[in-house]
Amino acid sequence: xxxxxxxxxxxxxxxxxxxxxxxxxxxxxxxxxxxxxxxxxxxxxxxxxxxxxxxxxxxxxxxxxxxxxxxxxxxxxxxxxxxxxxxxxxxxxxxxxxxxxxxxxxxxxxxxxxxxxxxxxxxxxxxxxxxxxxxxxxxxxxxxxxxxxxxxxxxxxxxxxxxxxxxxxxxxxxxxxxxxxxxxxxxxxxxxxxxxxxxxxxxxxxxxxxxxxxxxxxxxxxxxxxxxxxxxxxxxxxxxxxxxxxxxxxxxxxxxxxxxxxxxxxxxxxxxxxxxxxxxxxxxxxxxxxxxxxxxxxxxxxxxxxxxxxxxxxxxxxxxxxxxxxxxxxxxxxxx
Length: 336
Description:
- Helices cover 41% and strands 14% of the residues.
- It is an alpha/beta fold.
- It folds into two domains: 29-124 and 250-300, Periplasmic binding protein-like II (D-Maltodextrin-Binding Protein, domain 2, 3-Layer(aba) Sandwich), CATH 3.40.190.10; 125-249 and 305-334, 3-Layer(aba) Sandwich (D-Maltodextrin-Binding Protein, domain 2), CATH 3.40.190.
């Protein structure tokens, strides 16, 4: 009986530690490659078609990706990781990613890549308001950060959790800088979120594209590319608003995971993401490709006018990363 119980126990442990069926089938494991975000669905299908590599989708956000990479450090599961730039910087500091110089690395501007290739930008977006006009039910489309504090937007505003999701922190950074703050002065941003709390915002942890399309969240702090995807591909009566006070542009980056299980395949995928075809896929999904020649005039014409984008600016992303934990702690203490 004791032997039988021991064998049953060992079998149970083995079942618990076996990889998922997706892991068995995968040729490359990517953390944070969700099909509803940045049209990873099309990208992963194209990788399968062109490289014959199976890359399952993954719905982590940037914070969850970094946390899992750190937890897996002794026995890595992932091969590549995708996240907002500040999390790429943190991943290098945590020692969970490896240097890799992909094809076209020299075309990525300085400041948008780690010199040794621990992380590098594949595309970027502009933070603003993803607005489902029909869901406003006659309330005016907001044009500024301060507009959102008006009582008429009660229950209409959403933003991803800035203590976890990168787009949440990027939105908080944009608001803080636009309202007179700096990376050394986070108070304007904290005060904005405290005031916004009076309007009962919706604060999910994960990508909420579908919730905006359905009208459940009429106004979402998000990127231009998600709004344009909703407008041109999902027939949403939606508009992208670049706030009058200003906003920021934000790079999204990739890394090769240190000691990942499929390094050769992983490098092929990273090369593909920066290839002509890979960059065109991002551009067709309304992301600004890091190689600008992939942005065709036809796609560019669907974006807001360049005069609007003059209110969007890059920032020192290393400073942004350094301020992240301070903002997180203040948000948890003073807002949540």
